[in-house]
Amino acid sequence: METGWSQSWITAVLALRALDTSLWEATGACGLGRRMAAVEDLLGTPPSAGDGAADQGPGAASGSR
Predict the structure, then answer these.
(1) Distance CA 37, CA 40 (A)
(2) What is the per-residue pLDDT across 16-36, written as a single tens digit (0 to 9) for each?
(3) Which of 39, 10, 42, 15 is nearest to 26 (CA)?
(4) Is 45 within 8 Å of 35 (Cβ atoms)?
(5) φ and ψ at 39, to 5 degrees?
């Protein structure tokens, strides 16, 4: 019996591979970034989140852009 998120992540990754896409491409047009400012206002922004790295996709925080 699987526990946690492992089984759902495996299924999601296999589906993305079958569609020949990535998580970033599949969710890029959902508009989450436009709604994040309101969510951050509600929850409060952590001190390290002000650098904008989260908006730049994978590898942005490590300086690989």
Answers:
(1) 5
(2) 999 999 988 888 888 877 888
(3) 15
(4) no
(5) -65, -45
Check if the beta carbon of residue 23 is closer than 8 Å to that of residue 16: yes
Amino acid letter for position 13: V
Contact 63, 29 (CB under 8 A): no
- CA 35 from centre of chain: 14
Q: How many residues belong to the chain?
A: 65
Residue 62 parent element (H or E): none
- In angstroms, the CA 38 to CA 8 distance is 28
Under DSSP, the state recorded for 53 is G
